[in-house]
Specification:
Structural class: alpha+beta
Largest sheet: 5 strands, mixed
Helix content: 25-40%
Number of helices: 13
Order of helices and strands: EHEEEEEEHEHEHHHEEEEEHHEEHHHHH
Length: 375
């Protein structure tokens, strides 16, 4: 049999939901797979659908083939993620498989836009309500983070009632937020009308933190990951690690982690959807010595230093394959080489081979994790 399907059945949570019963209940294996391609038609205004074709059977023997565009690769085994690797199901996990800081989803305003201030309105808002300047923070989602666009929010955590009363424009925004929440069809959001001055969540960091965008273009060789200062409020369109180090940044921005992300993440069309429960919490981190950690931190800083040479460039500019500065690419290559060495991978391994090795690591770590939980 074969499926012609949207590519979601080989990504994220759906890969395990679709394929695990087929493998476990019927003993099938995948014979061939066409990786993601656009299936479009000539209808006016009709969007292209991103599809895969997957052939499977219970028969043993025979050639197994993966097609990717014009490329045809013979595989030893085809996993549900359409890579040549072991049959591993990366399922949703609430905590990291390895000993690393948790990844957190950013703050959801749930405000109808009333606690958000657009950059072009900022000066007039502060002029009309000078006291509000103390409670306005830069606000970032994926779009603002990647494209270096300015946006702001009213962050009114801990502000006393008498201070709020001295800011009439802020009070108008709070009142509008309250009405928006009261009209919401969702009961949970209606309850938020009792605290109309606050975002749904109020999660911040006391020091610089790592940010990973929820959606990133497949065109980039690297997912734009960066440190932000604690003054910035991040939205639920990014995820962040409050207590991360340069070492964590180095591993997360390495080619090994990007290969893992490409293999297991969900997609928005063909763009990567980064998630904590599937991608981050299941990622097999290497066992590194103090010397190796220090080396990764040094090379990670060199990546940040290379970016800093272009202060006017956004992450979108820096990581576009057509405009990526040579010194930044060189810094990433050095970091990739060091990371591969820590994993014990050959520096010339293909991305598919890296994913296959990481899948095996994940399999062993998941078994050990479950045993420790039972004890």
């Amino acid at each position: 049999a074969a499926f012609v399907s949207t590519n979601s059945i080989s990504q994220g949570e759906q890969a395990a939901a679709v394929w695990k019963p087929l493998f476990e209940m019927f003993g099938i294996h995948i014979d061939f797979a066409y990786r993601t391609f656009k299936w479009s038609n000539e209808a006016k205004g009709k969007a292209a659908v991103h599809c895969v074709i997957i052939g499977f059977s219970k028969m043993r023997g025979g050639e197994r083939v993966i097609y990717d565009g014009e490329e045809r690769v013979t595989a030893k085994n085809i996993s549900p993620y359409l890579v040549d690797g072991p049959i591993v199901f990366v399922e949703s996990r609430k905590t990291p498989l390895c000993d690393v800081p948790p990844l957190i989803t950013g703050n959801r305003p749930a405000d109808g836009g009333h606690l958000i201030i657009e950059d072009e309105d900022l000066a007039d808002f502060i002029k009309a309500d000078p006291l509000s300047k103390n409670y306005i923070r830069q606000f970032m989602g994926s779009e603002e983070f990647i494209n270096n666009r300015k946006r702001w929010c009213l962050w009114l955590v801990g502000v006393s009632p008498d201070e709020l009363r001295r800011m009439p424009n802020v009070m108008k925004r709070i009142e509008a937020c309250k009405k928006d929440r009261e009209r919401a069809p969702d009961e949970g959001r209606r309850k938020l009308a009792k605290t109309p001055a606050l975002f749904r969540e109020q999660i911040t960091s006391e020091k610089d933190f790592i940010v990973i965008p929820a959606v990133s273009s497949e065109r980039r060789d690297y997912i734009p990951i960066a440190f932000l200062p604690p003054s910035v409020i991040v939205s639920n369109l990014v995820t962040f690690i409050p207590n991360a180090t340069l070492y964590h940044f180095g591993i997360l921005t390495s080619s090994a982690h990007i290969a893992w992300t490409r293999a297991v993440c969900g997609r928005l069309k063909s763009d990567y959807r980064y998630s904590k429960d599937i991608v981050y919490n299941n990622f097999p981190w290497p066992e590194a010595t103090e010397k190796q950690i220090a080396e990764i931190e040094k090379l990670a800083q060199e990546v940040l230093d290379a970016r800093a040479k272009f202060p006017g460039s956004s992450l979108a500019d820096l990581y576009d394959p057509l405009t990526m500065p040579p010194e930044l690419l060189k810094a990433h290559n050095a970091l990739d080489k060091a990371t591969m060495k820590i994993y014990g991978f050959d520096k010339d391994m293909t991305k598919a081979d890296v994913v296959a090795k990481l899948m095996k690591m994940h399999q062993l770590l998941a078994v050990a994790f479950e045993k420790n939980k039972e004890q």
